[in-house]
Amino acid sequence: xxxxxxxxxxxxxxxxxxxxxxxxxxxxxxxxxxxxxxxxxxxxxxxxxxxxxxxxxxxxxxxxxxxxxxxxxxxxxxxxxxxxxxxxxxxxxxxxxxxxxxxxxxxxxxxxxxxxxxxxxxxxxx
Length: 126
Description:
Elements: H1 6-30, H2 35-58, H3 64-92, H4 97-120
Helix pairs in contact: 1-2, 1-3, 2-4, 3-4
């Protein structure tokens, strides 16, 4: 079995975050697609490409454990970025509870879709 080095999983996580940022800029600024639809498209495309990257690098789907590590790491990195963005928003104007709830909803799309796609395509139970 082709066991990936932990660094390879980190590259997939970091690549997923970078791709999500790039797609956000492209879709929201250049194509002018916004809102929850844009978030769902970006989160889904990023998750599919992370899954594809794993399969191309390792010639197999991720195990359950590998998929969970990718999802948790990816979600944690995005959470740090989202908290920074929320902090910047708070400095400009304190967002209300609904704005924060919508912000959290947008964030959750990324790790949830990554989990759905990566865990559905797992190759084993370890």
